Amino acid sequence: MRRNLSFLLLALMLAGCGAARHPAATTTAPKKPKPARVPAKFLVGAVGPVSVDVQGVSLVRGTLAQASASAPLVLVAAQSTPLAQLAVFARAHPHTHFAYVGGTTAGNRVRNVVGLVLRDDQASELAGVVAGLVAAPNGAQARVAWVGPEERKLVGAFARGLHSAAPHAVLLRQWSRKLPSRCKEAALTAIGRGAVVVMAHADGCADAAVAAGHDQNVPALRLDQFELPEVASEFIVRDALGGVYRGNEDIVFGAASGAIGVRTLDPRIPLATAVRARAAAQQLANGISP
What we know:
Blueprint: H1 2-21, E1 42-47, E2 57-61, H2 64-68, E3 73-77, H3 83-92, E4 97-101, E5 113-118, H4 120-135, E6 143-148, H5 152-165, E7 170-175, H6 180-192, E8 197-200, H7 203-215, E9 220-222, H8 229-241, E10 249-253, H9 271-285
Parallel strand pairs: 1-2, 1-3, 3-4, 4-5, 5-10, 6-7, 6-8, 8-9
Helix pairs in contact: 4-5, 4-9, 6-7
């Protein structure tokens, strides 16, 4: 019995020594969290005066070759690049997609080129409303001039907007060649005939007409003040972010899309009139005739 008790005591001593050498509970240092991965920017090429403000997108500006070198989608302003030039370049770079901002691709469709067309007739009608709001205080003596090349569709839309805001206003159609010098001369002639507002389409002709108006302290309007191409550009960029690319077609953007509105107005136009002009733009966007 004494021997059994000795064996028991020896076993207990050995167990205690083992516990000391191999503790039952151990602790480990917590792992450091991995740093969050910052997503890379989605690159979009930009040729000419185009812009977008989309989260996660970075613009790469340059020529067609520079903009398309690293970007899967390139926005090309229609006024900066002839369609024929873009079509040739796009066919040579079939893995890059192009959006022709503010122009149609009709007559030269390419699989990887989409046209983003703005409803310039709606923009012209809105411009007419603004011109009418400016001219209305002159009553039956109100005269407004369209200056530049003969564009009957746009002038007709302008007239509708004008007469909705100033039913008795007279529209002077002061046609001229597209040369800036001729456009400025036509604007000065219209002002001499009593025009209290002058309107022109775009480019150098519009620049010259606006300069003539300012020389005579007369408010001047131009069509691109009522077109918002960035709305169309952001639409196509968001599609690309989702992996959707378009081509071989035109997409038309009107007032309902938000692409037709008041961007800026001549500082000679009173603030109260500018507020009414923006209200008219909102009516047009809601499908209501201003």
